[in-house]
UniProtKB/TrEMBL annotation:
InterPro entries: ATPase_AAA_core (IPR003959), DNA_pol3_clamp-load_cplx_C (IPR008921), DNA_Rep/Repair_Clamp_Loader (IPR050238), P-loop_NTPase (IPR027417), Rep_factorC_C (IPR013748), RFC_lid (IPR047854). The keyword ATP-binding applies. GO terms for molecular function: ATP binding; ATP hydrolysis activity; DNA binding; DNA clamp loader activity. This is Activator 1 41 kDa subunit. Belongs to the activator 1 small subunits family. Residues 244-318 form the Replication factor C C-terminal domain. It is found in: Nucleus. Residues 33-148 form the ATPase AAA-type core domain. GO terms for cellular component: DNA replication factor C complex; Elg1 RFC-like complex; nucleus. It comes from the Eukaryota. Keywords: ATP-binding, DNA replication, Nucleotide-binding, Nucleus. GO terms for biological process: DNA repair; DNA strand elongation involved in DNA replication.
Length: 326
């Protein structure tokens, strides 16, 4: 099997990070490990399942030594489970390769023959974020399962359960905002909530988690800030071009950019959000969108090369404003 999709969608599981309480632990069990536990039970799980993180152990030597050695061993007889439950215990073992897209091409090539030779007694599950990094001969030997970003409903139910179990005190709208900023990544959403809780519980007295705190933790610029910046460039957020909004000219754009930078927001993040706000607007002509996208791309390149954030963002916003005024 080949599990692929964005991170934080429950393909495998994540290691516990620090002293987290049981409510947080309920969220980290992934699909393949949950399946393995249901197949083999607690007694045979260690003997029948080999889990490797390919980002740490990704060379051809690991394939030849650890994986081949485990794959060639014939499964032992099935003992009676100590917990009194009955498990299917199929007559094969399971090898889980997490982050398989980090394996070298030589290691992936060596894995092909092993998968074919020992498929009768050993099954494989490759887990990755980017399926295009898996070589085609290896991918063609697998049944592919795509994991999409988690839906708002299921993620919200889990986050609300955690917040209730942990006694999280948050303002109205904070939990939906966390899920929105996480973009379907449940692990990221839990990290935002956990960080915000520790931040606000450390103050004396403890305070409610605010939306601004969540924005600062995630690094995502508040929508109102982006909207104000769009308006001085002559764009009505969600609507289209409105040249009457850009009467302030150069000085208005300069004040808007300076305000964003003085608040400590990343220019790269601002560019990303401007792009996501402008490009989907249907009423903006294609030519203006192309010019705006080109300005954003050149600004991003300059930032990567070490350009000054305020100056580059100012130039980009002025170019977008000029495009919208035509």
């Amino acid at each position: 099997m080949l599990f692929y999709g964005p991170p934080g969608t429950g393909k495998t599981s994540e290691p516990e990070m620090g002293p987290i309480t049981p409510a947080w632990k309920l969220t980290v069990t992934g699909t393949i490990l949950a399946l393995a536990r249901q197949l083999f039970g607690p007694d045979l799980f260690r003997a029948r399942v080999l889990e490797l993180n390919a980002s740490d152990e990704r060379g051809i030597s690991v394939v030849r030594e650890k994986i081949k050695t485990f794959a060639r061993e014939t499964p032992r007889h099935v003992p009676v489970s100590s917990d009194g439950k009955t498990y299917p215990c199929p007559p094969y073992k399971l090898i889980i390769l997490d982050e398989a897209d980090s394996m070298t091409q030589d290691a992936q090539s060596a894995l092909r023959r092993i998968m074919e030779t020992y498929s009768r007694i050993t099954r494989f599950c490759l887990v990755c974020n980017y399926v295009t990094r898996i070589i085609e001969p290896l991918a063609s030997r697998c049944s592919k399962f795509r994991f999409r970003p988690l839906g708002q409903g299921s993620s919200q139910a889990r986050i609300e359960m955690i917040a209730s179990a942990e006694g999280v005190d948050a303002e109205d709208g904070v939990l939906p905002l966390i899920l929105e900023l996480a973009g379907g990544d449940l692990r990221k959403a839990i990290t935002y909530l956990q960080t915000a809780q520790r931040l606000h519980s450390a103050s004396k007295p403890p305070t409610q988690i605010s939306k601004l705190s969540v924005h600062e933790i995630s690094g995502v610029v508040p929508g109102t800030t982006i909207d104000d910046l769009l308006k001085v460039m002559g764009v009505e957020p969600g609507q289209g071009i409105d040249q009457s909004l850009a009467k302030g000219g150069f000085e208005a754009v300069k004040r808007g950019v300076k305000g964003v930078i003085r608040e400590g927001w990343s220019a790269g993040q601002v560019l990303e959000q401007i792009h996501d706000a402008v490009i989907p607007i249907v009423s903006i002509p294609t030519i203006q969108k192309s010019q705006a996208a080109l300005a954003i791309a050149e600004c991003d390149k300059a930032l990567c090369e070490g350009g000054d954030e305020e100056l580059q963002l100012l130039e980009c916003c002025l170019r977008i404003r000029e495009a919208m005024m035509r």
